[in-house]
Amino acid sequence: MTIDWAIVAMAVPLLVQGALTSLKIAALAGALGLAGGVALGLVSLGGPAPARLLVRAYVDFIRGTPLLIQIFIVFFGLPMLGWRPGEFVSGVLALSLNSAAYVAEVVRGAVGAVERGQSEAAKSIGMTRGQILVYVLLPQAIRPMTPALTNDLITLVKNTSLLSVISVYELTRSGQAIIASHFAPLEIFALLAIYYYVIISCLAYVSRQLERRMPAW
Amino acid sequence: MVTATMQAPSPAAPVPPPVPAPAAPLLAVRDLRKSYGAREILKGISFDLARGETLVLIGPSGSGKTTVLRCLNHLEAPSGGEIRLAGESVGGHLSPDGRWRPMSESALARQRRRFGFVFQRFNLFPHLSALDNVTIGPRRTLGLSRAEAEARAKAQLARVSLAEHMHKRPSQLSGGQQQRVAIARALAMEPELILFDEPTSALDPELVHEVLDVMRALAREGLTMIVVTHEMRFARQVADRLIVMEDGAIVEEGPPEAIFTDPGDPRTRRFLTHVLDR
């Protein structure tokens, strides 16, 4: 078996464009997913009962169905609602919706694990449920949440590759385009793997640094 | 007709109490009950508390002292009975048909501001400095400005002799210091009374006195307090009145000197022999 180094040399710079798009998608979906997930998590912790039930059902649906199917549902479903945002926005939205469910679970778990005495102390100085969440429980949950959120973010980066099925020109899709014109699948897929690996290693490193710098009390 | 469904003597009923009546009691507890499933923890507790009074609850472990305190400000919802703070029913009210109607969550939160609570394990907020621990209540629940709340917090921290430690986190403070911050946190809310739940039980023996000294000073200043404790010497010196509990009921109540020197109930005698003989 021989490796066609000429194709590899040609593909490396071409894939950079795709990698940047993947990063952009991950950043957008990560931010939206985090915001949505924290909101959903807070509702499932302190919201009215019907809202809690809805969040539960949402999380169950997202966790119980393949992301690939969710991407198709968003991609083909939005136009039926009269909105054609294009494949990029559809893709970001699908990943955000997916990620929010997982983040919600992380938030719920970490906030729920804060010692009960903390809520009792907050109650005893007259805080309402919402105030207890915002001023007492959530700040204490951030540090224990970080490793799990990092995992979610890493999964999200890898999941961006699934958007190739709706023709978002991200890293995997741009690799497939090179394969289609030059037919060197092994070289290109190996190269894609390296790209993802490097991106995720960097992320993991940053996250470890962040964790180390977080205040311990 | 209105009082027909009530089991306990209504505070409105004109039955003169046996002791010379102080005005209206600050806190009136009638037939307080608490069960977890079939297990009855409190079997009908009744007592009054006057403004400025220091009431100490003693009794063996598991007798229900802590549960009484936790029911008073509804950290635990009582299963029955009535608690009145300055005449106002706590946690809800009995409707005319005899059913308990809990108040809204925000109304209960407002009511809890009138009780201070000091926990056995301090329960300080670990992510906040001592100062912020004391400031957060007045600032977030009483609506004071940051400057006002901080001024109030600093005054209370000075009162418990911790002014120089106010920028430290709880983890940087000793147990005794942490408990004093917790007392300052309760004081800063300017509550009508403070409930102390075994405030020295989690402390190393050599740190107990600094917390008791603070509480002694507060009692002298006329703060209304209810203290659950195993510190018998403190109980004897500081209590205006002592309640001895056993097995979810009050077995004896009266001035501490009388109870310590001549306990009327054999259960009290047995308990005191155990704790004083150590």
From TrEMBL, chain A:
Transmembrane regions listed in the UniProt entry: 31-55, 67-83, 188-206
Domain spans labelled ABC transmembrane type-1: 19-207
SUPFAM superfamilies membership: MetI-like
Keywords: Amino-acid transport, Cell membrane, Membrane, Transmembrane, Transmembrane helix, Transport
Subcellular location: Cell inner membrane; Cell membrane
CDD domains given in the database record: TM_PBP2
Single Gene Ontology BP annotation: amino acid transport
Major subcellular location class: membrane
Membrane topology reported for the UniProt record: Multi-pass membrane protein
Organism superkingdom: Bacteria
Record GO terms (molecular function): transmembrane transporter activity
GO cellular component terms listed in the entry, alphabetical order: ATP-binding cassette (ABC) transporter complex
Pfam families, per the entry: BPD_transp_1 (PF00528)
Entry function: Part of the binding-protein-dependent transport system for glutamine; probably responsible for the translocation of the substrate across the membrane.
NCBIfam families from the UniProt entry: HEQRo_perm_3TM
Family: Belongs to the binding-protein-dependent transport system permease family. HisMQ subfamily.
Protein name: Glutamine transport system permease protein GlnP
Taxonomic placement: Bacteria, Pseudomonadati, Pseudomonadota, Alphaproteobacteria, Hyphomicrobiales
From TrEMBL, chain B:
Location relative to the cell: Cell membrane
Domain ABC transporter intervals: 27-272
GO molecular function terms noted in the UniProt entry: ABC-type amino acid transporter activity; ATP binding; ATP hydrolysis activity
GO CC terms of this entry: plasma membrane
Pro residues composition bias: residue spans: 11-20
Catalytic activity, EC: 3.6.3.-
Matching InterPro entries: AAA+_ATPase, ABC_ATPase_HisP-typ, ABC_transporter-like_ATP-bd, ABC_transporter-like_CS, MetN_ABC_transporter-like, P-loop_NTPase
Annotated PROSITE patterns: ABC_TRANSPORTER_1, ABC_TRANSPORTER_2
Region entry Disordered, spans: 1-20
Topology class, membrane: Peripheral membrane protein
Primary residence: membrane
Cell membrane among keywords: yes
Record bears the keyword Transferase: no
Keywords, ordered alphabetically: Amino-acid transport, ATP-binding, Cell membrane, Hydrolase, Membrane, Nucleotide-binding, Transport
PANTHER family in the cross-refs: AMINO ACID IMPORT ATP-BINDING PROTEIN, GLUTAMATE_ASPARTATE IMPORT ATP-BINDING PROTEIN GLTL
Family in the record: Belongs to the ABC transporter superfamily.
Protein name: L-cystine import ATP-binding protein TcyC
